[in-house]
Amino acid sequence: MFALVAALLFVLALVFEIAGLAVGDVLTVTTLMVAGLVCVAVHLMGVGAGWSVLKK
Predict the structure, then answer these.
(1) What is the mean pLDDT of residues 8-29?
(2) Residues near 10 by Cβ (< 8 Å), separated by ≥ 6?
(3) If you average pLDDT over every residue of the chain, what do you get?
(4) Is the pTM of the predicted complex or chain greater than 0.70?
(5) Which of 6, 7, 41, 42 is most deeply buried (CB count within 10 A of its CB)?
């Protein structure tokens, strides 16, 4: 799930970069890229994967 969110954030960042858009000082290409990288990191940690090593 986080990988899908990351992909959508990266696509949105690409569209913002190509169009030269920025929504204020908060929502820029850089913030979208960082949010996408955070989602990738969370996905690689296994959060939301539906399994655990400690299942009994």
Answers:
(1) 91
(2) 32, 33, 36
(3) 87
(4) yes
(5) 6
pLDDT at 1: 82
CB 35 within 8 A of CB 13: no
Which tokens hold the place of 51? 């399994």
Distance CA 41, CA 26 (A): 22
Token pair 């799930």: residue: 1
d(CA 1, CA 38): 13
Contact call for residues 53 and 30 (beta carbons, < 8 A): no
Backbone angles phi, psi at 48, to 5 degrees: 80, 10
Q: What is the pLDDT of residue 55?
A: 58
